[in-house]
Design goal:
Strand order of the largest sheet: 3-4-2-1-5-6
CATH architecture: 2-Layer Sandwich
Radius of gyration: 17 Å
CATH topology: Heat Shock Protein 90
CATH class: Alpha Beta
Distance between the termini: 33 Å
């Protein structure tokens, strides 16, 4: 995958398949330590110890439609290629957490990619799931929490196109703001 946002989309799709109702995506970029971390946490059904030990193997998948599962193994390889670390913690009936770190300025680190449209795609295709998206660059932080948006909307759906436009513009403005050096 050419962008980290596509890895995030793939991992979140795994969370959705695991029947998660709440998914956190936390990205932290730190120029001082030359690091980027991505954490994805869900409250899905989790994995057994046995599956957890094998899940980074590309020839292991829980899907019935194919015999390979490249998403997690490719994400792990992307981290390790950039002097980073990758780990998964999961508990049955509690959920899963994936942690990935990268040397931010490593020549082989893929660009983050289009997180705005990644979040929009997730909301549009899975309206009943709540997402917490936190993105920080150094000390600046942006947060989108769909639970908070739902409180304001009342009975209006997150999939309403005016709401989607607002969310998209809110994320764009928030990401622009955290990129500013203060």
């Amino acid at each position: 995958m050419r962008e980290l946002s596509l890895h995030i989309l793939d991992i979140v799709q795994n969370s959705i398949s695991a029947e998660a109702s709440f998914i956190e995506m936390i990205i932290h970029e730190d120029d001082k330590s030359n690091s980027m971390t991505i954490e994805i946490t869900d409250n899905g059904r989790g994995m057994s110890r046995e599956l957890l030990e094998k899940v980074t193997n590309p020839f292991i998948t829980t899907r019935k439609t194919r015999k390979v599962g490249l998403g997690i193994s490719l994400f792990k390889a992307a981290c390790e290629r950039c002097n980073g670390k990758f780990y998964i913690d999961s508990k049955l009936r509690e959920g899963t957490k994936i942690y990935a770190s990268f040397e931010k300025n490593h020549i082989d680190r893929a660009p983050l990619g289009d997180m705005v449209n990644t979040i929009i795609i997730l909301i549009l295709s899975n309206e009943k799931i709540d997402y917490l998206y936190k993105h920080s660059i150094n000390e600046n932080e942006f947060i989108l929490d769909t639970r908070e948006v739902r409180k304001v909307l009342g009975d209006i759906s997150l999939n309403n196109m005016e709401v989607i436009d607002w969310i998209k513009n809110h994320i764009l403005a928030g990401l622009d703001e955290i990129k500013k050096v203060k």
